[in-house]
Amino acid sequence: MKPSLVLKMGQQLTMTPQLQQAIRLLQLSTLDLQQEIQEALDSNPMLERQEEGEDFDTTDPLADHVETKANGEAQEDSFQESTYQESAPSNGSEGGEEGDWNERIPNELPVDTAWEDVYQTSASNLPSSDDDEWDFTTRTSAGESLQSHLLWQLNLAPMSDNDRLIAVTLIDSINDQGYLEATLDEICEAFDPELDIELDEIEAVLHRIQQFEPAGVAARNLSECLALQLRQLPAKTPWLALAQRLVTDYIDLLGNRDYSQLMRRMKIREDELRQVIELVQSLNPRPGSQIASSEPEYVVPDVIVRKDRDRWLVELNQEAVPRLRVNPQYAGFVRRADTSTDNTFMRNQLQEARWFIKSLQSRNETLMKVSTQIVEHQRGFLDYGDEAMKPLVLHDIAEAVGMHESTISRVTTQKYMHTPRGIYELKYFFSSHVSTSEGGECSSTAIRAIIKKLVAAENQKKPLSDSKIAGLLEAQGIQVARRTVAKYRESLGIAPSSERKRLM
Asked: Which helix (H) or strand (E) holds 312?
């Protein structure tokens, strides 16, 4: 075969930079989009925020650049003329005016604000003597880890150098839940033999750390954790002695909900056991969770849904994303026939600004279309709750709005809708379906809501098993297997029936 040149005609789909930018903005969450907009405002001088009460400038800045430039030159000439007239000294008063001007300048010019109104000094952060509600923990524990909180208390405790070294090693072995992960033998072997640290010293330091806050920290198991918390309660606390005996000797029976065996072993009545268990349940089995180690995450709704005269209205959250426009002053500096470097840069910035604004408009229109269709399909949920949720998949919305399923997936990811029933992610309204005995369909979200309702109304002495719940659902015409009920129950965070047993 000989190599040859052949000319062919064909069609090919190409991802233009504009389309790539629109897709990237479409899948961003509200907080990420705000950051993207701020970066665009910082890098592109043609973009600016539209203030409230202003309208978008719909005229083409390039078409009016000649008039804008002429007006600018006229204003500049008038400004120079007025400046010259104001700065020109009057006859015979040049020296006197200069002397009077120097005399009128005060030593300290007045200001509108004080330094403490803008900047916080170390002295202003300290509590005043009259502030009785000042709390050190609430103002200084944001983002604090459990280890740093324990080390802060360690610095306030008088210890020898060896004990402090042991304490730091023990604190490093405490996990986020507040439990000591390593055994004392493992910690003892980790030290240098020349230090001559014995196991009794490590256990003595451990007892001192267990007196730190939060109560129950540095425990080696659940029984010790609960016992440490009970030990710090006042001695006059009701049922304290029985609670200490319960968590020390019979913690396994309590975990298995074997109340009859507990009453027989502890020789107490049912009402007394109920009081003891209530005291134990008031304790925290994970003391380390009290110290926040992560920053809070905020959710900003993209869409707001409200009811007006028996109609559900859908609107975008205008306060979440700022409105942008092209700066008419900078856009007027662009000249059509100029090919200089500065003009080419400004022209490119103007084109990128227009693309960015158009991509934002496309994102808002797509989000509005998808949200409207979701509300139209899930009116029953908005009126009656989770039990009225209908089955919905991405293909249904894609056909309704005339878009691809991948586009619907991007729109509904990390986007939130504010409804009278709460804030939900758009993905929440999509669920699979289960067939009913009458030939209809029931969404998995509705089944979860029914299971939650059945568990809330069950007899706590005899909780409903998964098979019993499946039978109750079948009585309502919903055909669900026991394994499916177990899967839905676990997704709701509901414990099995053996763990839900309570004393009435």
From this structure: strand 311-316
Full 3-state SS string of 270-288? HHHHHHHHHHHHCCCCCHH
In angstroms, the CA 135 to CA 371 distance is 44
Residues in the chain: 504
For residue 205, give the 3-state DSSP assignment.
helix
CA 490 to chain centre: 24
Render 365-401 in DSSP notation, one character per residue: HHHHHHHHHHHHHTHHHHHH-GGGPPPB-HHHHHHHH
The pLDDT, as a whole number, for residue 171 is 92
CA dist 12 → 7, 404, 407 (Å): 15, 18, 20
In angstroms, the CA 146 to CA 172 distance is: 10
Q: What are the E-state strand segments in 105-249?
A: none
Contact 37, 321 (CB under 8 A): yes
What is d(CA 443, CA 396) in angstroms, rounded to the nearest whole number?
14
H-helix or E-strand spanning residue 125: helix 122-125
- Mind listing the pLDDT tens digit for each residue in 194-252? 888 888 999 999 999 999 998 999 999 999 999 999 999 998 999 999 999 999 999 98
Q: Render 30-43 in DSSP notation, one character per residue.
A: HHHHHHHHHHHHHH
Question: Residue 208: CB partners within 8 Å, gap ≥ 6?
Answer: 157, 159, 163, 167
Chain CA centroid to CA 268, Å = 47
* Cβ–Cβ < 8 Å for 124, 139: no
Q: Is 362 exposed, middle or buried (0-12, 13-18, 19+ CB in 10 A)?
A: middle
Domains and CATH numbers, the chain: 146-290 (no CATH), 303-429 (no CATH), 433-491 (1.10.10.60)
Query: Which residues of the chain, if any, have pLDDT below 50?
Result: 56-103, 105, 115, 118-131, 133-141
Residue type, 449: A
CB-CB contact of 230 with 245 (8 Å): no
Residues whose CB is less than 8 angstroms from the CB of residue 453 and which lie 6 or more positions away in sequence, other chains included: 387
pTM higher than 0.85, yes or no?
no
* pLDDT at residue 123 in the model: 40
Query: Cβ-count burial of 413 within 10 angstroms (0-12 exposed, 13-18 middle, 19+ buried)?
Result: middle
pLDDT of residue 30: 84
Strand, coil or helix: what is 273? Answer: helix
* Distance, CA of 45 to CA of 326 (rounded, Å): 9
> 149 Cβ partners below 8 Å, 6+ apart?
141, 213, 291
At residue 113, the pLDDT reads 52
Cα-based angle 35, 41, 47 (whole degrees, multiple of 5): 140
For 317, phi then psi, to 5°, come to -80, 100
State the pairing for strand pair 441-443/433-435: antiparallel
Pair of tokens at residue 235: 């001695």
Burial of 263 (0-12, 13-18, 19+ CB in 10 A): middle
